[in-house]
Amino acid sequence: xxxxxNGMKRRWLSLYVxxxxxxxxxxxxxxxxxxxxxxxxxxxxxxxHTVSRMTICLDADENTFEQIKKQFNRSVEVIKVIDxxxxxxxxxxxxxxxxxxxxxxxxxxxxxxxxxxxxxxxDMDKGSVLIESCRTEIKNDSILNVIHDRxxxxxxxxxxxxxxxxxSMQDR
Length: 172
Prior knowledge:
172 residues, alpha+beta, Alpha-Beta Plaits, 2 domains, 30% helix, 40% strand
């Protein structure tokens, strides 16, 4: 977990919200209006199509984080707020990297890297390769660093991590 000298810490929240137009804008507006820095925010529909789940990761001190949770709990569209900060959680992030300017030699190297780093080659043509990695944010950072060091003509899309509380006792 990231910490710094100002009491800033990486914080995780999960919000169950009404699946209605404008809810995402109001939630992100609430954060940006108070100058809270969002590290990542992902949203998806739950098993109930009237409810969406937001995973929010931000860096904040304890007082600021308590204010954020109180503001969310007062919001009409928010059904439930779960603070994952001090819980054992599972996280995953989807990342796509398109590598352009690929030769036969570098394509072979990319396939070797895919085997070593456990990412998948999802698409390719004569000059490009598209890889996908569904790993933790830290592991995706490592993959991206290796790709970035080796290849200069890349495009990166990251979906932001989603999180859920772990259920296994060995994770706690």
